[in-house]
Amino acid sequence: MQFTTVLLAAAAFALASAQGVEFTMNSSFFATSYTAGVSVLDLTWDQNSGPVTLKLMNGAATNLTLVEVIETDVTGTSYDYKPPADLPSGTYAFEIDDSSSKLINYSKQFTLIAGSASTITSTTTSSASASPTTNSTSASTTKSSTKTTDSSSAPTTTTSTTVPKLNSGSNIASPFAIVLLGLAAMLTLN
Description:
Layout: H1 2-17, E1 22-23, H2 27-31, E2 33-35, E3 41-46, E4 52-58, E5 65-74, E6 78-81, E7 90-98, E8 104-106, E9 110-113, E10 116-130, E11 137-151, H3 168-189
Parallel strand pairs: 2-9
Antiparallel strand pairs: 1-3, 3-6, 4-5, 4-7, 7-8, 7-9, 10-11
Helix pairs in contact: 1-3
InterPro entries: Kre9/Knh1-like_N, SRP1/TIP1-like
Protein name: Yeast cell wall synthesis Kre9/Knh1-like N-terminal domain-containing protein
Keywords: Signal
């Protein structure tokens, strides 16, 4: 009976303290708008038990879709990421997968602005010729110009009221741990 009580208490403690990998960027990271192809984002996380896979996701917080796998088998707790220049403007989030514990977590959403450069080329050609009697005159003029324009849209602010649940496993684990501790207490009293 005592062994069962100790086993249940240990299981409850392990369940209550179990947390998975999570991003650790602060709120100002997610309040900033970033430009694709220009900005370098410093992704940080902790509580991973092995190498992680980082993914870029897009869409509503309740329906994220994969944009790209950023990197696999990342060791440590940080990674510098430069979004590709061809990404469209929108709301994005990161997914992190812990290869050892098989736990997955998501970041809050952030705004990404598309980066672009356009080249405008114009050529103007004009010619004139005259050929009356015995003398002949001919003239030709060609102008060519190339103009390169960099453009980017002004930063926009997007407010999202739905955020992916961070550490959702620990939210479930705590009430369950309390129930197990209560059960262990009842077994001890009997």
